[in-house]
Amino acid sequence: MAELRLPSRLLYSELLNDSRPVGRPRKRFVNQVKSVLQRCNINSPGLEKIAKDRSTWKKICEAGLIGLMLEWTNASYRRRLISHPATSRELKPTHCAKLCAPNVTY
Question: What domain of life (predicted)?
């Protein structure tokens, strides 16, 4: 590529002046919509035809959101169990049926 051509000048000026942002490119709106549809288990082929029928589209979106919320709740519950294992804060003596709170001072 010749040094005086515009693509060459743009490429090397970006590299010399550090004007390119760090990290991956920002998501566009279309990419964000596709990722949300994928997380909701909604298949992308033929969505335009399905979206024309509003009642069918509403049912598909509601089912996808319910599935997404269930998965999110289950994942947060699993994370909580890992970080805070279920421990009994009550002491149950073996000789009676009373529940006694632990007498621990901090």
Answer: Eukaryota
Nearest-10 Cα torsion for 48, 53, 56, 59: 80
- Angstrom distance (rounded) from CA 31 to CA 37: 10
59 C-beta neighbours (distance < 10 Å), count: 12
Percent of the chain scoring above 90 in pLDDT = 4
- What pTM, to 2 d.p., does this model score? 0.50
Give the Å distances, CA to CA, from 85 to 42, 88, 99. 34, 10, 21
Closest C-alpha to 103, from 95, 94, 85, 91: 91
Distance of CA 7 to the CA centre of its chain: 38
3-class secondary structure, 31: helix
